[in-house]
């Protein structure tokens, strides 16, 4: 199980405690967890004038190199290179999705798990660059020579400049690792035919509200979750299903006080990560121990993720999950951690009615 972390392609790393795969390995037989780092921010996605397209998405290239390394070496750690899957959260999930489109013929992995992110997620669709603004801020000006100047600037000066303003450095279409025509590529079959487990958190953007608030606009949060996460995901899964790709989908609804200090926070963006990794007791600054339901939900999620990893084609079917379809009246959406139970199956219409008509 190879994990790609999130962080809007600008921050993050495998040293973050809730990405510790120890508990997954301890509690599940015959599983190896690998977490990878990749270049971020202007190091990984410079979009700089003077650089050829093949050198603009270095972070995505790092991900491929890491997966190739695991493929070539995992046998030395007791793993099987022919049974690898890729999973990620937020832009890590988007990266897994992007990866499947970039390597349709030789993906090396046998399945992908996308937690709260696809190539269609809102932030990923921004093609802007802040290179020239940053290079000008450190005295390197604009134009193609700015890259050579920036190479000579001490890192602390660049970091200080970035602290003053907001800078985003994201993937840009280069024709090999990242594309501008994903829908067309999927419709023409230019995608790795890998089984998919994908889902979202019930209140993805609730974390954007100040914790000092006593309540939030629930309708607004739901609308944001639909627009930025569920509907883009549904749209993309529909495209994948037309390629006869087996798909399973979930919505995470856990609301646990040691992870959500305000009751209105609920299942916000990233809140499922401690449940997947079993790190719910080591990542929270709050004193409450994990509840029994939280522990049960974590075990259930780990069981599902591992079942998929061991058998991407039918592991989740054996685990009791229905396969995805976009027929509104059929039960094909798995609810995790809500209403006092670790799991249940919902009629898709409960959520997908907000995405009708399809975004295709």
Summarize the biggest pleated sheet: 8 strands, mixed
| Helix residue percentage | 25-40%
Number of helices: 13
Average pLDDT level: 90
β-strand percent reads 5-15%
- The separation of the N and C termini measures 31 Å
Low-confidence stretches: none
Shape: globular
Which secondary-structure class do the elements indicate?
Answer: alpha/beta
- DSSP strand tally: 8
Give the strand order, joined by hyphens, for the main sheet: 2-1-3-4-5-6-7-8
Radius of gyration computed on alpha carbons:
20 Å
The ordered string of helix (H) and strand (E) elements is EHEHHEHEHHHHEHEHHHEEH
Task: Write a concise keyword list for the protein shown above.
360 residues; alpha/beta; eight-stranded mixed beta sheet; 13 helices; Carboxylesterase type B; AChE-related_enzymes; hydrolase; carboxylic ester hydrolase activity; CarbesteraseB
Summarize the structure.
With 360 residues, the protein is of the alpha/beta class. It has 13 helices and eight strands. The chain is globular and about 60 Å long.
Task: Describe it.
By secondary structure, this protein is α/β, with parallel strands linked by helices. It is built from 13 helices and eight strands. It has helices at residues 22-27, 41-44, 58-73, 91-102, 131-137, 146-150, 155-164, 182-187, 218-241, 273-277, 292-310, 315-318, 349-352, and strands spanning 2-4, 34-36, 86-89, 112-115, 196-201, 247-252, 331-336, 343-347. An eight-stranded mixed β-sheet has the order 2-1-3-4-5-6-7-8, with helices on both faces. The longest helix has 24 residues, at 218-241. It is globular and about 60 Å long. The mean pLDDT is 90.
